[in-house]
TrEMBL record, chain A:
GO terms for molecular function: phosphate transmembrane transporter activity. It is found in: Cell membrane. This is Phosphate transport system permease protein. The keyword Transmembrane applies.
Automatic annotation (TrEMBL), chain B:
Signal peptide: none annotated. This is Phosphate ABC transporter ATP-binding protein, PhoT family (TC 3.A.1.7.1). NCBIfam families: 3a0107s01c2 (TIGR00972). Residues 5-248 form the ABC transporter domain. Gene3D superfamilies: P-loop containing nucleotide triphosphate hydrolases (3.40.50.300). One of its GO terms (cellular component) is membrane. SMART domains: AAA. Keywords: ATP-binding, Nucleotide-binding, Translocase, Transport.
Length: 316, 259
């Protein structure tokens, strides 16, 4: 830059852009816009199809008591099963991931990782039959025991189901289904914990577990949360397995071990959609809209949790 | 409590590969011992064997003896975790824990040894350690900020504060200044001169001027060729190494004729 140039004329500098860069930037941007369009399209469809049910008088809605009392129990059932699955699967998945990345001998670790990934490849209808044929009967004694001994907790208030086809069994089946998702992501982030910080912990005299607490878990925290949210997403939307296992009632109860557990939104849609007509279809779609909103909320919550301590994430 | 380290006939292996061979050396307390030599000559491996950090790699083992004030560091009943609590280490790249604040970084080692400490005690310890690392004035107003918000030189001094907060007997430094600018390097060297009053310091460095500036004793490591084990060629007072070394190889290396 020469000093003789008038300050009123800023030099017009344009970076050279190569065709490869332009094509790549364009296609990447196109993909980004495409996913937004798909999302907007789904949301628009759900809203426009749900509007008749939202505006209809209460007695026209299936059940005859209005939209809120139709969808309400389904929301309870959906959240109950998914949260139960998440509570069981997350600690287990973190443990599996830590074992594979930091404890197991290399050959066992590789085999185990492969086997866990295989769990994700099993179709959900198979999980459903397994839950119905194996898990439900196996868990009946636990149901009876829980009703007798844990009855003071609302979740185990009873009366215990004698078939085992309850929300508790559904939660366990869902937990097994989301285990591979969470553990695969946890494994990935744990294995990327920087050697620099692991060695820092060990050099201070940390045992292996202390090293994991100091350098691996904090580093992997946001990844584990992201994995858990993906798992929760699958559990919330799971249809087949729930529809097969659960013999639901209609009440909005948090009782996990009785026959009166509400169904979930997704399985309810799957079971009723084939025979639904007119306003019934709109009602089911409205319940789908609610599921969509729940998932959205869960994801935003997870984002917020991850970003809350972004300064300390180690990404800077 | 600075302690003396006696190393005798030390061989270090990674699996079947012999990385370092036949080291005999006595490291004096309350002094700085520098280790120099070309890359891959085993000086870092030797340094890490002093607090058993090389065992982090699978297949690592040693033959021979490392004795610190009569305590055999490789005795069959010795837990490497305890060795590392007595022998602190500072690494080549500053590595404060990114998920912890400056305050928590300083007391990370103490939290391992002892979970129950009074708040006033930890406050005192943090101040004392940061003052000992010449960092207190720069960070005293932002102890709750992440350690990674500091500059490279400050981060390295934070790591030194973390290492000395547990009052180790020995402080090992693996090229502590190689990622720092000259001003920060000088700050660390001044700090080392103060720390040697209290600790035994062993430093690996590629910077021969640094070895000449800070150390009392210097060891020169070399290897005959690729795949050969590294050896301690010469160990002498720093002044002698840099003016009148016993070995031709040492003289060639420090005068820049090879390596």
């Amino acid at each position: 830059m020469t000093a003789t140039k008038a300050p009123s004329e800023p030099p017009q500098q344009r970076a050279v852009r190569r065709p490869g860069d332009r094509i790549f930037a364009g296609s990447a941007q196109g993909s980004g816009i495409f996913i937004l369009l798909v999302l907007a399209g789904v949301a628009a469809f759900l809203i426009s199809e749900a509007i008749p049910a939202l505006t209809a008088p209460a007695e026209d809605i299936p059940g005859g008591e209005g939209l809120a009392s139709y969808i309400g129990p389904l929301v309870v059932g959906t959240l109950l099963g998914a949260v139960l699955a998440l509570l069981i699967a997350t600690p287990l998945a973190v443990g599996i991931a830590l074992y594979i990345t930091y404890y197991a001998p290399r050959r066992i670790a590789a085999t185990m990782g492969y086997v866990i990934d295989l769990l994700a490849a099993i179709p959900s209808v198979v999980y459903g039959f397994w839950g119905l044929a194996v898990m439900a009967p196996t868990l009946v004694p636990f149901h009876l025991w829980a009703a007798d001994n844990l009855g003071f907790i609302p979740f185990f208030a009873g009366p215990a189901s004698t078939s085992g086809r309850t929300m508790f069994t559904v939660g366990l089946v869902l937990a097994v289904m989301i285990l591979p998702i969470i553990s695969a992501i946890a494994r990935e982030v744990f294995s990327q914990a920087p050697a620099l910080h692991r060695e820092a912990a060990l050099a201070l005299g940390a045992t292996r577990w202390e090293m994991i607490k100091m350098a691996v878990l904090p580093y992997g925290r946001s990844g584990v949360i992201a994995g858990a949210m993906l798992g929760l997403g699958r559990a919330l939307g799971e249809t087949m397995a729930v529809a097969i296992v659960l013999s639901g009632g209609a009440g909005a109860t948090v009782n996990l071990i009785s026959n009166s557990s509400p169904s979930t939104i997704a399985s309810n849609i799957a079971l009723r959609f084939p025979e639904a007509t007119g306003l019934g279809v709109n009602t089911l779609i409205a319940s789908g809209l609610v599921l969509f909103l729940i998932t959205l909320l869960v994801n935003m919550l997870a984002r917020w949790v991850v970003n809350r301590r972004a300064d300390f994430s180690g990404a800077n | 409590m600075a302690k003396r380290i006696e190393v005798s006939d030390l061989n270090i292996f990674y699996g079947n590969f012999k990385a370092v061979e036949g080291v005999n050396v006595s490291i004096e307390p309350r002094s700085i011992t520098a280790l120099i030599g070309p890359s891959g000559c085993g000086k870092s491996t030797f340094l890490r064997s002093l607090n058993r950090m090389h065992e982090v790699l699978p297949g690592a083992r040693v033959e021979g003896k490392v004795v610190m004030d009569g305590q055999d560091l490789y005795g069959s009943d010795v837990d490497p975790v305890n060795v590392r609590r007595q022998i602190g280490m500072v690494f080549q790249r500053p590595n404060p824990f990114p998920t912890m604040s400056i305050y928590d970084n300083v007391i990370a080692g103490n939290r391992l040894n002892n979970n129950r400490m009074k708040k006033s005690d930890t406050d005192d310890l943090v101040e004392k350690s940061l003052k000992g690392a010449n960092l207190w004035n720069e960070v005293k107003d932002r102890l709750d900020r992440p350690g990674s918000s500091l500059s490279g030189g400050q981060q390295q001094r934070l790591c030194i504060a973390r290492a000395i907060a547990v009052e180790p007997d020995v402080l090992l430094m693996d090229e502590p200044c190689s990622a720092l600018d000259p001003i920060s390097t000088l700050a660390i060297e001044d700090l080392m001169a103060e720390l040697k009053e209290r600790f035994t310091i062993v430093i690996v460095t590629h910077n021969m001027q640094q070895a000449a500036r800070v150390s009392e004793q210097t060891g020169f490591f070399n290897l005959n060729g690729v795949g050969q084990p590294g050896r301690l060629i010469e160990f002498n007072p720093t002044e002698k190494i840099f003016s009148n070394p016993d070995q031709k190889a040492t003289e060639d290396y420090i005068s820049g004729r090879f390596g």
